[in-house]
Amino acid sequence: MKQDTKNVVKKIIITEAVRDSVIMPSGINVEVAYCENPVDMIDSFMLESEDLILFTVLVIPMTLYKDVYKHLNLVDYSRIFYQMLLIGNDRELIDQNLDRLYHICDFLPSKVSDAKMRFIIDKSFSILEKYFQNEQKKIWYYNRLVDAQRDQEDLINIGKSLSGEKDMEKLLRLILYLSKKITGADAGSIYLVEEDDSGTKRLRFKYSHTFSRVIPLEEFVMDMNTKSISGYVAVTGEVLNIPDAYKLSELAPYKFNPYFDRQHNYISRSQLVVPMKNHLNEIIGVIQLLNSKESHNPAKKFENEAFEIQLDTLKDFDEYVVTFDERYNSLMEAIAGQAAVAIENNRLINQIQMQFEEFVKASVTAIESRDPATSGHSFRVAAICKELALAVNEVTTGYLGTFHFSENDIRELEFASLLHDFGKVYIDLNIFQKAKKLYPKDLENLKLRIDYLYRFMELGYDTREIEMLDSLTRLNGTYSTDDIKILRKEKIMRLDRIREIKDILVQLNEPTITDRDPEAILKEILAEIEGLECIDPSGGKIDILTLSDRTNLMIKRGSLNNEERSEIESHVIETYKFVSKIPWPPEYRRIPEIALRHHEKLDGTGYPDKLKGRDATSLQSRMMSIADIFDALVAQDRPYKKSVPIDRVISILQEEAGANKLDPDLVNLFIYKKIYIKFISPEQREQILN
Ligand SMILES: [Fe+2]
Ligand SMILES: [Fe+2]
Q1: For position 168, what pLDDT does the model report?
Q2: Is 264 exposed, middle or buried (0-12, 13-18, 19+ CB in 10 A)?
Q3: Could you say which ligand is closest to the alpha carbon of residue 378?
Q4: Helices then strands (H, E): number in the chain?
Q5: Rounded mean pLDDT, 242-268
Q6: What is the bridge-based pairing of β-strands 271-277 and 283-293?
Q7: pLDDT for 564 beyond 50
Q8: What is the SS3 assignment for 594?
Q9: I need a labelling partner for 109 at 20 to 30 A (CA). Which of 31, 59, 281, 417 fits?
């Protein structure tokens, strides 16, 4: 620790009242000043010489002691170091009744010899010097303590900041920003260790910032060996604190490459280069700090040198750049350790997230592959929802203007969209693919039974006709030729009707809405068929229309019966149950709820809970409803469904919004922003252009 005494002024201040009592010894190398009141002289010194320190011996009457001490004790005397020589007699001493004797070097009752005076003066200044040194030491220790405390706080804060940052680019920027702020560095770079395809380690120059220059950032890769400064630290794990990179020892294994300096008219003088070691003590990168800055002018105080002192000229570099303080070695090592852990955590989180995302996508792909006609639906719904969310973010007015989707919110919505129909895995695929009221095989069976009935009746008529013909050949036969004619006529009529019934049933199988209630039609047919005897070869009665046929053919709208409809609708509950089991991080906690509500309608006609109104569901669910319906409508032709022309799709969405089923603001935004364009086929795009 160096004692700085270059600003010290030494003075003996003698009060006029005791001027005659002291004889200044000759040859004293200290300024002697006379005054009426020493307090005034000290005050004016304080005012006039801001940067100076005063060592003074005050020669005052005993009677002034209390006043002077009181005053000097009150003012900021961190720059005044003083001793008092009190002049007076014993009577005065007794009268003063001094109980505290601070800053008193002696009490002299009368004139003293030269030698005694010289002794007192020398003793006083010696005391002051010692006192000053102690004060300096105290300040030095105090500053170290404050620095250590600040370093500790910085470390804690850095730990908190770094662990909270999930974006890798932002994290690197933050690491460098904090490192520079703490060390007062003008510039810094971060290198990360990576492996090439052959497993050879190399250093990637990943991020850099220079306060005093605007330098475009370009990543590059360099060999990881001890020839460069950063390479040396990356290989050995040693901390390098280099006072001047241009004056490296010949023996140093590494060399300084001045290329960057020449390119940018910069001087990378002092450097602090630290390894970033992870929890396994592996080096994952290097932080290189350049040019620790410090102002030597006490009049120029900076809040933070790193971001205030500009290094433009050579003079600036000479004036402000200092060697990095030794204490930064261990501090930066600790920071680099925290940075390494944060970077590794970040990598790990990203990796886990990526793996999870891939897993979700693979699962969704697997489920969707059950029905090739709808494959890609969930991915398209996710993409549409993302576009819609970005469009919502651009809205600044009205109800949608109050919403903003963060990056996390959008990812949450994407996951919810990818998984929104996951519950379909639990549902019989045939139901989804049911295009008509009866499954094809059931219709075929029904047709076969009707054909059987046809043939059965035909056989019945023919048998009777043979019987009649038989009776004609016999005497006294029961039947006449007229009877045969009547029978034939009836046969044609009944068989025609069977054919007709077959056509009606085939017609009834279509999911289109008919003029007449299908139930009434079916009841008529049933009444007719019921009266017909139809038995199989073993004598069992054949039910032409099974219970299942009847239930299905009575469907008034669409192709699904109530049971099938509620099974399909249960997919949202199954999705919810499944998705809820996934331990989502807090930022994705709404995924199950968003997915659960994608079939709710604003007017309360949706499912599963018939929720009514905007407040009952999230904006995300309402966005998903639009994306879901849109994709189902524009999807390419399916075996059971035709693709709807795009202008019709838009009208349907508008009608649904008008009927208070879909959120009208979202539908308008979807149409106004032409979000749909990206999600239709080239042919459909053609339709819009024409
Ligand atoms: Fe759905
Ligand atoms: Fe869907």
Answers
A1: 84
A2: middle
A3: 2
A4: 22, 12
A5: 93
A6: antiparallel
A7: yes
A8: helix
A9: 31
Tell me the HSE value of 320 on the side-chain side, using a 13 A CA sphere. Answer: 29
Q: Residue 440 pLDDT more than 70? A: yes
- Write the CA distances from 646 to 373, 599, 684, 686, integer angstroms: 19, 22, 6, 10
As beta bridge partners, residue 107 has 86
Highest mean pLDDT among 77-91, 142-156, 591-605: 591-605
378 CA distance to ligand 1 middle (Å): 9
Token pair of 467, please?
């019987």
CA of 443 to the centre of ligand 1 (A): 28
Q: How far apart are the first and last CA of the chain?
A: 87
What ligand is nearest to the CA atom of residue 571? 1
Cis peptide, bond prior to residue 243, ω within 30 of zero: no
Whole-number pLDDT of residue 144: 85
Q: What is the pLDDT of residue 449?
A: 95
- Proximal ligand: closest to the CA of 364: 2
Range 473-493 average pLDDT: 89
Ligand nearest to the CA of 595: 1
3-state secondary structure 186-233: EEEEEEEEEECCCCCEEEEEEEEEECCCCCCCCCEEEECCCCEHHHHH
| Cα of 591 from ligand 2 centre, angstroms | 15
User: Residue 2 has what pLDDT?
Assistant: 46
Report the separation in Å between the CA atom of 572 and the middle of ligand 1, taken as the mean of its atom positions: 6
Query: From the CA of 589, how far away is ligand 1's center (Å)?
Result: 20
Q: What is the pLDDT of residue 4?
A: 58
Closest CA relative to residue 524, chosen from 556, 553, 496: 553
Domains, the chain: 8-140 (3.40.50.2300), 166-342 (3.30.450.40), 369-427+563-689 (1.10.3210.10), 440-559 (no CATH)
Instruction: Output the CA 646–ligand 1 centroid distance in Å.
Output: 21
pLDDT tens digits, residue range 640-676?
Answer: 566 788 899 999 999 999 999 999 999 999 999 999 9
How many Å lie between the centroid of ligand 1 and the Cα of residue 598? 6
Cα 661 to middle of ligand 1, angstroms? 15
245 DSSP assignment: G
**C-alpha of residue 603 to centroid of ligand 1, in Å:** 18
Q: How much distance in Å is there from the Cα of 96 to the middle of ligand 2? A: 99
**Tokens 């010489």 belong to residue:** 49
| Ion ligand 1: residues, CB < 5 A | 421
Distance between Cα 218 and ligand 2 center (Å): 44
